[in-house]
């Protein structure tokens, strides 16, 4: 804290001195107003009494009072005084600008430590402080009633004023003392002799309580008044207009009666407007005339009157009251612990003060004669009369009662006075500061009274500093700052800074830091001179210490305030340091000062700077900030400038896949010839290899995505953003790719740039972003484009823009109103040099010992002659499939370049699930499963071997503007998954170009696959045919396992196709299409004959009722099979397997279904791939039947309502023997065998109804047996518990041959 004119003891006495209420009649007030003073201002210069007074305490011991400081005021402040305080405080701080001469030299720096503006603030704060009920020491101790001797009836006027003052004021004692004073204006005759009026008042109130004060006793003479005017310091800043000054005390008292006693307005609080009128200020009034006409004799009369008031009235009255209170308390202490206290404990039904959980109030319900209030009153009188020992004992005793009663206002006040009593009393007692710490916390946290916490903190800091506790004082100064009151926060922050510099050793960094904060608060409060002073003092401490962040903040703020005070030279010097090339731009961007800058001042200062520079000068401004290494360059974009929130997405894994596919296509397109492969790079960023220079053809767009950030906390407007380009003619020997490195701070493109000149409009076409508004600390990505128009080298060197400042012009109209015209825009040109650099090199010792970075050529573009350019579109390809589903679409390849392309190859990352077909120049829809009219066919098929597809373009090329539509089939595969379908188009130009050997285009589509059906084929038996050839009997089991929320409906197997070199597929008589419901499964039997070796043999059978058959020999159908896992198991198919005891047969199962997708139903066309492993060792002449079972395999039922669940099961039996067979079917419950593995996995159930059948089945005929099963519990059951036996000859005595129903027939039942 800075040095003050008063010491701590004098300051406390002035704050907590006896308060005297002053009220007067209008005539008495007019006598004072004649001299430019109010009644209170007339008495204030004589409130400090330097005489010693003696009283006796309640023990009759003498007590000396020294330096008694009275406080005169009206009975209560009007609400207007709070409004006036804001203006008065601002004027006082502004007028007290020059610091005193008190200072100290600290570590080579001279720090001034005299702050008269802080003392002015402190005095005004206590002067305008509004007192609550609990703060009894700040209540009035006595009252002085002043009337004029010229009154018609002075005695009646005194009575009237005494009655008015009784009803509205707060008093330390209910029986307060009133002192009556008659003001005798000697310059005017009186209606009644003054002595008669004095005698009448003495008769009523006693001679000690009455006095006469004589004014205007002589003519004013400057020679007879050589001394200073004692009233001038009290009237400073009180320049009210005449009509406001004429308000009398009676008017103020009448207004005060409307105030709420519990409402408190913090004079340092928010600055919102009030409905009550505010005093107007008259700056033309001369303060020097205030009290100048009062002579020395008048001053002596006032001083004598106040002295008599103290000696004859105030001290004797309070001496008697102190003794009476002490006696009353002694009597009450004797009753403690007796019947009185017991009665109070058990029979007191009144409300307890400070009820827990309630809101603390300043008057919680104590009676005026309660022991706590009496003890507090005794302590107040003792403290005001400077008997600090008695005061401490009283406050210390009563604070415990207030705490127990949870009367927190009273408790905090008692803590405050206990601490002050200890501080002002005898030294050597315990440290008083702990009481003050708790007092401030109670005011802040429990009472929510920040104005009282502020008062306590100001006094507490004075006490701490007087004891040398500077660190603790600084902490309290800083704690009491807030965001709502900038002026007083700046004052307190500055005092905290002074506390840090007075420490031993001094904390200079804290001192400077808090001075900066104080300057910021002063600036927000409009105190620019004080703000500049704080920043200057802080800059002296921080200058040259390497703290560039703080130096930049201070320098920028000094420049801003200098500009606001029209010091253009100082503002220019401050901004010049920030904009100089030697300034660390990163530190400037992080500087807190920039967050508070005014953009208009910044632009105006730079404009003044530019006026002194040559024409055409463009500054490299630090605003906005560009992240050079994050610049994203993409070729073949759209010629349009825009703004986005983030950079384009870049996936390293995808880029690696594209390069891999590009390499595959390059190998296919250049088979048999040597070709040096270089990937065609279309994207350049901080994750790519930027040693390669981008290759671009004439009239192709280059798009730069530039990350731009506003480092300020205010919006910034930029206009006319465009790219600055350099151009040079390309030499024949200029390399396309380079590995040149650059050292730290140097640009890898300096050599190129030095050879280039600014590109003209005939050489490049650049896009322009007309306006960009950056919010506070906002990050955006600006996309700007460049279109080369001629061959050569183009370097994108920088970003050009204009920094815009908008200011509205205000004009005053004739009627006095202010109108805002169209805003004026100030613009300054700026440029940001784009200089990305590659990764740091760390390969050699030299590179490790120094900072060497790889070359980054992403902004150095080679422009070649015109080239073809394609655009891929896969909008018609499917994005959602089911396992096995085949969907068709087209890939659209459009040549958007200006030359024709001749060779085209398509490759894909998921080649097993994608087949490319025919090409047309008009839109069309490829068929999924084309059909033929032949029911049953055997055809020869061929196969491809490449992973990619070389597209045969119509007419051998694709001209500019033409679109090729390539048929594409996408297959769902065998597993549920989601994948990204990446298609890369590799193409070449008709004309040979040494710079660009090929180009690519790519597109990607996300495809999701859901589960649908599973297919399993197995060999049931191998038997001889009627002509003794080998026949294979098998079955295909198809299960509908789709997700039930999107379950497949009406799923039907339509066709089986067998791919084998030695076997031919045949049907088993007439077949009926079977619907597989969700969760269901069917077994489809088939027969195949061994016919001999063939080449790529495909045979098919239809399972429907019609004659049409799917043409399974179509190229895309065979290709999908060839790429499947089933085909791999069967390879090679073209080898002669005669004599081989085992055969592998590939099979394609075609099925159709429907699925509900929202309001519509979609039909699915699908094909599943499987294979058979036929082994001669499996040949068994005893197995003559092929069997399958159909049923609904998923049930939900409530067994509480229906104890038994009945399920219908259908058993299909086909005779594969050349003769008629007798079949015995037994569904007996005794057939369950515990030692059978298939039976053990099933829960028990019961067959019911007809359980035994005897059938005769002819050759290749199929019979159906209907069974019924009963279930009593939920669970999973195996229905393969039927015994089947066959008899070839009814006349034989041999037992029937057991037949096996292969597989597990599961049924699931869930309970509802």
Number of helices: 32
Separation of the first and last Cα atoms: 81 Å
Largest sheet: 7 strands, antiparallel
Q: pLDDT below 50 for ≥5 consecutive residues: which ranges?
A: 239-288, 335-357, 581-586, 588-593, 743-753, 1133-1141, 1231-1241
Structural class comes to: alpha+beta
Mean pLDDT: 78
Helicity range: 25-40%
Strand content: 25-35%
Number of DSSP E strands? 59
Radius of gyration: 52 Å
What overall form do the CA principal axes indicate? Answer: elongated
Explain how this protein is built.
The chain is α+β, with helices and mostly antiparallel strands and 1312 residues long. Helix content is 29%, strand content 29%. It is built from 32 helices and 59 strands. Helix 4 runs antiparallel to helix 5, helix 14 (388-404) runs antiparallel to helix 15 (408-424) and helix 17 packs antiparallel against helix 18 (470-479). It starts with 7 loop residues before the first helix and ends with a strand.
Annotate the secondary structure layout:
Elements: H1 8-15, E1 19-24, H2 26-33, H3 39-43, E2 48-56, E3 62-69, E4 71-73, H4 79-95, E5 103-106, E6 109-112, H5 116-127, E7 140-148, H6 154-168, E8 177-185, H7 194-205, E9 210-215, H8 232-235, H9 242-245, H10 249-256, H11 296-335, H12 339-347, H13 371-384, H14 388-404, H15 408-424, H16 433-446, H17 450-466, H18 470-479, H19 486-501, H20 508-524, H21 528-542, H22 548-564, H23 568-579, H24 585-590, H25 592-595, H26 599-611, E10 625-626, E11 632-635, E12 642-644, H27 652-669, E13 683-684, E14 695-697, E15 702-709, E16 716-728, E17 741-743, H28 750-754, E18 757-758, E19 764-766, E20 769-774, E21 779-788, E22 792-807, E23 810-812, E24 818-820, E25 824-833, H29 845-849, E26 852-854, E27 860-864, E28 870-873, E29 880-882, E30 886-895, E31 901-908, E32 914-920, E33 931-932, E34 937-940, E35 949-951, E36 963-971, E37 977-989, E38 999-1010, E39 1013-1024, E40 1030-1040, E41 1048-1059, E42 1063-1066, E43 1075-1076, E44 1081-1090, E45 1097-1102, E46 1109-1110, H30 1115-1122, H31 1125-1130, E47 1142-1157, E48 1160-1175, E49 1185-1190, ...
Parallel strand pairs: 1-4, 1-7, 7-8, 8-9, 14-27, 29-38, 50-59
Antiparallel strand pairs: 2-3, 5-6, 10-15, 11-13, 11-15, 12-21, 15-21, 16-18, 16-20, 16-22, 17-26, 19-21, 22-25, 22-27, 23-24, 28-30, 30-36, 31-35, 31-37, 32-36, 33-46, 34-45, 37-38, 39-40, 40-44, 41-43, 41-45, 41-47, 42-44, 47-48, 49-51, 51-55, 52-54, 52-57, 53-55, 56-59, 57-58
Helix pairs in contact: 4-5, 11-13, 13-14, 14-15, 15-16, 16-17, 17-18, 18-19, 19-20, 20-21, 21-22, 22-23, 23-26
């Amino acid at each position: 804290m800075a040095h003050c004119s008063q010491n701590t003891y004098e300051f406390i006495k002035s704050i907590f001195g006896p308060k005297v209420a002053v009220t007067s009649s209008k005539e008495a007030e007019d006598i004072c107003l004649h001299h430019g003073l109010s009644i209170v201002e007339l008495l204030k210069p004589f409130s400090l009494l330097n005489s010693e007074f003696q009283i006796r305490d309640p023990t009759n011991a003498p007590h000396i009072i020294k330096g008694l400081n009275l406080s005169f005021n009206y009975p209560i402040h009007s609400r207007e005084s709070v409004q006036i305080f804001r203006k008065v405080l601002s004027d006082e701080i502004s007028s007290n600008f020059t610091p005193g001469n008190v200072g100290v030299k600290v570590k080579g720096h001279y720090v001034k430590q005299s702050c008269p503006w802080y003392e002015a603030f402190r005095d005004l704060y206590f002067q305008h402080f509004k007192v609550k009920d609990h703060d009894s020491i700040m209540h009035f101790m006595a009252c002085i009633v002043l009337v004029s001797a010229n009154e018609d009836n002075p005695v009646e006027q005194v009575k009237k004023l005494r009655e008015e003052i009784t009803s509205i004021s707060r008093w330390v004692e209910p029986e307060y003392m009133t002192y009556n004073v008659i003001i005798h204006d000697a310059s005017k005759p009186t209606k009644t002799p003054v002595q008669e009026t004095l005698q009448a008042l003495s008769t009523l109130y006693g001679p000690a309580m009455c006095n006469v004060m004589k004014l205007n006793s002589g003519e004013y003479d400057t020679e007879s008044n050589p001394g200073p005017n004692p009233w001038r310091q009290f009237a400073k800043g009180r320049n009210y207009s005449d009509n406001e000054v004429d308000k009398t005390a009676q008017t103020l008292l009448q207004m005060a009666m409307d105030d709420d006693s519990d409402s408190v307005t913090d004079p340092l609080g928010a600055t919102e407007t009030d409905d009550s009128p505010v005093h107007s200020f008259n700056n033309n009034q001369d303060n020097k005339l205030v009290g100048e006409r009062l002579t020395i004799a008048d001053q002596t009369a006032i001083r004598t009157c106040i002295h008599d008031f103290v000696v004859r009235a105030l001290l004797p009255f309070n001496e008697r009251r102190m003794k009476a209170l002490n006696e009353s308390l002694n009597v009450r202490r004797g009753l403690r612990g007796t019947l009185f206290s017991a009665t109070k404990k058990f029979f007191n039904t009144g409300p307890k003060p400070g009820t827990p959980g309630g809101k603390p109030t300043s008057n919680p319900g104590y009676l005026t004669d309660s022991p706590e209030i009496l003890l507090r009153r005794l302590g107040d009188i003792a403290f005001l009369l400077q008997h600090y020992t008695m005061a401490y004992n009283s406050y210390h005793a009563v604070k415990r009662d207030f705490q127990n009663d949870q009367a927190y206002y009273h408790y905090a006040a008692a803590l405050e006075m206990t601490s002050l009593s200890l501080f002002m009393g005898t030294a050597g007692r315990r440290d008083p500061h702990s009481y003050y710490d708790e007092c401030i916390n109670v005011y802040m946290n429990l009472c929510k009274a920040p104005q009282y916490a502020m008062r306590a903190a100001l006094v507490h800091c004075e006490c701490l500093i007087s004891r040398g506790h500077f660190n603790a004082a600084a902490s309290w100064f800083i704690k009491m700052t807030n965001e709502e009151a900038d002026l007083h926060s700046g004052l307190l922050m500055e005092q905290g800074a002074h506390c840090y510099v007075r420490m031993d050793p001094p904390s200079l960094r804290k001192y400077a830091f808090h001075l900066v904060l104080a300057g910021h608060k002063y600036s927000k409060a409009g105190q620019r001179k004080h703000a500049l002073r704080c920043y200057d003092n802080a800059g002296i401490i921080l200058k040259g210490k390497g703290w560039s962040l703080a130096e930049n903040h201070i320098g920028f703020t000094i420049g801003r305030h200098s500009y606001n005070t029209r010091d253009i030279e100082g503002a220019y010097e401050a901004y010049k340091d920030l904009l100089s090339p030697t300034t660390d731009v990163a530190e400037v961007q992080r500087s807190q000062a920039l967050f508070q800058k005014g953009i208009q001042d910044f632009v105006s200062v730079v404009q003044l700077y530019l006026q002194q520079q040559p024409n055409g000068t463009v500054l490299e401004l630090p605003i906005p900030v560009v992240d050079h290494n994050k610049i994203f360059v993409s070729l073949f974009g759209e010629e349009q400038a825009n703004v986005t929130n983030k950079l384009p997405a870049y996936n390293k894994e995808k880029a690696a896949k594209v390069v891999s596919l590009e390499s595959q296509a390059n190998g296919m397109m250049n088979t048999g010839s040597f070709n040096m492969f270089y990937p065609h790079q279309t994207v350049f960023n901080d994750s790519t290899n930027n040693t390669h220079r981008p290759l671009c053809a004439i009239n192709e767009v280059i798009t730069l995505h530039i990350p731009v950030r506003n480092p300020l906390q205010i919006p910034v407007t930029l206009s006319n953003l465009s790219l600055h380009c350099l151009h040079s003619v390309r030499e024949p020997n200029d390399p396309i790719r380079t590995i040149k490195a650059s050292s730290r701070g140097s640009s890898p493109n300096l050599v190129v740039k030095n050879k280039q000149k600014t590109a003209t409009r005939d050489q490049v076409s650049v896009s322009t972003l007309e306006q960009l508004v950056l919010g506070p600390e906002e990050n955006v990505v600006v996309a700007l484009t460049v279109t080369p128009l001629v061959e050569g080298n183009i370097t994108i060197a920088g970003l050009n823009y204009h920094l815009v400042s908008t200011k509205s012009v205000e004009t005053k109209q004739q009627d006095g109103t202010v109108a805002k015209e169209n805003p004026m825009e100030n613009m300054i040109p700026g440029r940001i040099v784009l200089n990305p650099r590659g990764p740091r090199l760390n390969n050699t010792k030299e590179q490790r010992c120094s900072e060497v970075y790889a070359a980054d050529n992403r902004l150095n573009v080679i422009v070649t002659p015109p080239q073809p350019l394609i655009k891929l579109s896969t909008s018609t390809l499917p994005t959602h499939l089911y396992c096995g589903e085949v969907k068709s679409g087209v890939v659209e390849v459009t040549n958007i370049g200006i030359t024709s392309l001749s060779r085209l190859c398509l490759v894909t990352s998921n080649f097993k699930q994608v087949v490319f077909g025919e090409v047309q120049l008009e839109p069309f829809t490829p068929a999924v499963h084309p059909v033929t009219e032949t029911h049953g066919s055997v055809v020869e098929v061929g196969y491809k071997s490449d992973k990619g597809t070389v597209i045969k373009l119509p007419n051998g090329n694709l001209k500019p503007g033409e679109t090729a539509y390539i048929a594409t089939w996408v297959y769902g595969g065998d597993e549920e998954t989601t994948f990204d379908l990446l298609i890369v188009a590799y193409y070449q130009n008709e004309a040979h170009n040494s710079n660009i050997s090929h180009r690519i285009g790519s597109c990607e589509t996300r495809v999701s696959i859901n589960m649908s059906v599973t297919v399993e084929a197995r060999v049931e038996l191998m038997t001889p045919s009627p002509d003794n050839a080998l026949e294979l009997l098998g079955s295909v089991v198809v299960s509908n396992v789709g997700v039930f929320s999107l379950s497949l409906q009406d799923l039907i197997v339509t066709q089986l196709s067998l791919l084998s070199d030695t076997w031919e597929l045949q049907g088993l008589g007439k077949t009926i299409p079977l619907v597989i419901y969700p969760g269901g499964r069917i077994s489809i039997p088939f027969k195949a004959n061994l016919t001999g070796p063939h080449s790529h043999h495909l045979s098919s059978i239809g399972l429907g009722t019609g004659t049409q058959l799917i043409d399974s020999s179509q190229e895309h159908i065979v290709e999908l099979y060839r790429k499947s896992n089933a085909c791999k198991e069967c390879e090679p198919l073209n080898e002669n397997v005669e004599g081989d005891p085992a055969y592998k047969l590939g099979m394609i199962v075609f099925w159709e279904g429907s699925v509900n997708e929202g309001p519509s139903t979609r039909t699915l066309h699908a094909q599943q791939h499987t294979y058979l492993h036929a082994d001669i060792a499996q040949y068994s002449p005893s197995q003559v039947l092929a069997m399958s079972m159909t049923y609904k395999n998923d049930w939900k039922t409530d067994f509480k309502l229906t104890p038994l669940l009945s399920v219908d099961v259908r058993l299909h039996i086909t005779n594969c023997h050349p003769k008629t067979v007798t079949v015995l079917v037994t569904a007996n419950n005794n057939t369950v065998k515990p030692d059978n593995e298939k039976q053990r996995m099933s829960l028990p159930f019961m067959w019911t109804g007809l359980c035994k059948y005897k059938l005769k089945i002819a050759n290749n005929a199929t019979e159906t047996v209907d069974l019924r099963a009963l279930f009593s519990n939920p669970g999973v059951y195996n229905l393969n518990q039927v015994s089947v036996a066959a008899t070839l000859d009814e006349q034989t005595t041999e037992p029937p041959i057991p037949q096996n129903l292969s597989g597990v027939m599961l049924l699931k039942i869930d309970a509802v």
